[in-house]
Amino acid sequence: MTDTPDTTTPDPDLAHLADLISMIPGPDDPYFWKSLPSESRTDYIFQKLVPQMQLLRKPNPEPVEIASLAKYLIYFFGSTTAKLHDHIGRQTDIAPYELTGRLWVEDLHATCWRLYVRYHARTRTGRWERKWPEDFHAWWAARRESEPAE
């Protein structure tokens, strides 16, 4: 496993996310960020994303930070348009731009979803062991015995 030059993370999905982010404009391109179809204003987008993007510079970011960044990227790039796909595709310099932009968005969604699922479960509520008791069969039998007969 190798790190990308843009991140020090050992997680390949987080490194891939950094690669995807490096393909689009930074905050100095207001035209790009205003073209996002999210209902949020640009200042809100930057208020949420800029501090969280710093985690890509950390060697061991906290799971809650990774899950949060993934969640916001899914939200901000959640419902995209052909116009935004074209704009993103032009950043990749691979025609047809609308197609490459759509591929970028799909890749971002898939990568962020994997990161969210992986790290959200480690944050507070998701551990499966808490939800599925080790003695599940005994728990289920006791529950069925306590239910009224149909």
Fold and architecture overview:
This protein is mainly alpha-helical and 150 residues long. The protein has one domain (12-146). The chain contains 8 helices and no strands. α1 (12-22) runs antiparallel to α6 (97-120) and α4 (63-76) packs antiparallel against α6.
| Content of β-strand | under 5%
Helices and strands, in order, run as HHHHHHHH
Q: For the terminal residues, how far apart are their CA atoms?
A: 57 Å
Poorly predicted sequence stretches spanning 5 or more consecutive residues:
1-5
Arithmetic mean of pLDDT: 84
What count of helical segments does DSSP give? 8
Radius of gyration in whole Å, from Cα? 20 Å
Query: Which geometry do the CA atoms define?
Result: elongated
Helix content: 55-70%
- Class from helix and strand fractions: mainly alpha
Number of strands: 0
Number of domains: 1
Largest sheet, in brief, is:
none
Oligomer: single chain
Descriptive labels:
150 residues; mainly alpha; elongated; disordered N terminus
What's the SSE blueprint?
Elements (H helix, E strand, L loop, with lengths): L11 H11 L7 H5 L7 H12 L9 H14 L5 H11 L4 H24 L7 H4 L4 H11 L4
Helix pairs in contact: 1-6, 3-4, 4-6, 5-6
Please outline what is shown here.
The protein has 150 residues and is mainly α.
